[in-house]
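Why this split exists: single-chain examples teach little about how molecules sit against one another. For that reason, every record in the complexes split bundles all components of an assembly together and asks for one structure covering all of them. Below is a record exactly as it appears in the raw files.
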Amino acid sequence: MFFLPHLYRHPAFREGMRDVSPQSPGIAAWGLMTGVAMVKSGMSVFEAVAMTLTVFAGSSQLAAIPLIVAGAPAWVILATGFCVNLRFVVFSLHLRPFLMHLPLWQRLVHGYITADISYVLFTRKYHQPGHTPAEKLEQEAYLAGNDFLNWLSWMGASLIGIALANMIPTAWGLGFAGILCLLGVQCSLASSRMRILSAAVAGAAAVVAYALPLKLNIVFAIAVAVILCLTVERLRPQGKTA
Amino acid sequence: MNGTDLWTLAVIAGLAGVTVLTRSFFFMSDKPWHLPAWAQRGLQYAPIAALSAVVIPEIVMSQGQLIGTWQDARLFAAAAGTAVYFRSKNVLLTIVLGMAVYLPLHLGLGW
C-alpha cells in the first residue's frame, strides 16, 4: 500500500524500509535467480515479465512454469499454486487482527504484497495489534514501507534476471544468497528457547516430510512445530512463552 | 514454447489471483471472530517455524535426499552465516560473508 500518501508520509514507513534493507540483497539474489529460472524453463520473455509483475510469489511461479510449459489443465496449475502458497494462509491468520479495521480492498492489497520476509519482520516488531487509531496507522505504515522495499528489490532483480537469463548460469548458485538471508532472519527470531525448539522441530519435520508433493512439507512442518511448542508450554506452565 | 497465447496469460492471471487468495485468506470475511487464546499464542511460533521449514531442506538436502557428505559448500556457508549473525546481529553481513564462504567452495572445489 505504498501508493497511499497517509502511509508513505508516515515516519513508520521509512522505518519499515530501513528494517528490510539489510535483507534486500538476499531478496534480490533470490528474485534474480527466479527470473533466470523462468526464462530457462521455457517461458517467453513476455510471459515471464507478466508473471513476475502479477503473480509476485517465487515458489508458486517456479512450481507453475513446468506445468504451463507442459500444457497441464489450468485447474491443476492453480491448485498447485494454492498448495505451494499454503504457508501464506497461516500468515494471514496471524496478521488478521492487525488489519481487520481496514476496508476490504485495502486488506486484500496488503495481503497481496506481504510476502515471507515482510510478514516475519512485521510480527517480530509488533506482537499485539494497535489499540488506538494512531497505533494502528503506525503499524500499517510500517508494513507498507517494509512491503515496498521488499517488492522493489524482488521486482527489480527478477526483471534483470529475465533480461540476463542467458548470461547467468544457475550452476553458480547465486540463489543461495536468498537462503542465507532467510537464515539470518531466522537467527534474529531465535530469542527464546521455545522459539529455538520451534525452529529445530520445523526444520527436522520439513526434511522428514520432504517427499510430500507441492511443498506441503512446509505447512506440515509449521503445524508440527506450533503444536509441539504449545504442548511443551502446557507441560511446563511456569515456562516462558515466545 | 515461444509464442504467447491467451491461455497462458489467463493462467498467469489466475495465479496472481491465487497469490491474493492465499495471502489474504483470513482477511476476506468481515464477520467478527477471534482466535482462541491458545491458537493466538501458538502463532507466535509460526514465523520461525516457517523460515526453518524453508531454509533447512535447502541446506541439507539435494535431489530430494539428505546429503551424505560433509563436502557441501552449503553446510559451511550456513555455519559461517549463523556464526556471523550471532556475532554481528547483521543480516547483510550474514549474506555477504556466507556467500564469501559458499562461492569459493562451490565454484572452486565443486562442493
